[in-house]
Amino acid sequence: MITFLFNNEGTHIANVVKGQLYMPDGAHVGCYQEERGIFIDLAGHYLGELLYDNRLLCNQYSPYRHERYVPGDSYNELSNIGNYGDPGKESSIGTIDGYENVVLK
């Protein structure tokens, strides 16, 4: 199962497949840390969290922002996945105090 993720403007920015985070082009960029409710990048740094079920945003005041995490065992085994297509644009949720859009690289 795939979950399409968007920024606050409604632009498609990522996909989640089996707890792994991918760019729309299929590049593997991170994973979900279920016990903390956050996404981390390949180096183990905080990326952001979900709001409204499908918006990946960075909480500027998150206690996890300055921590580094070790990904699970299956994390390094995964590589790029195929392109799942363009789900289109979602409606904007506007600016939310304390949150900013996640920049994935």
Q: What's the quick description here?
A:
With about 100 residues, the protein is an all-beta fold.
Relevant terms:
8-stranded antiparallel sheet, 105 residues
Helix-strand sequence: EEEEEEEE
Average the pLDDT over all residues and give the rounded result: 89
The N- and C-terminal alpha carbons lie at a distance of 23 Å
- Supply the helix-strand structural class: mainly beta
How many beta-strand elements?
A: 8
Structure overview:
This protein has 105 residues and is mainly beta. The protein has one domain. The protein is built from no helices and 8 strands. The chain has an 8-stranded antiparallel sheet, with no helix packed on it. It starts with a strand and ends with a strand. The model has no long low-confidence stretch (mean pLDDT 89).
SSE topology:
Blueprint: E1 2-6, E2 12-17, E3 20-22, E4 28-33, E5 38-41, E6 46-51, E7 55-59, E8 99-101
Antiparallel strand pairs: 1-2, 2-3, 3-4, 4-5, 5-6, 6-7, 7-8
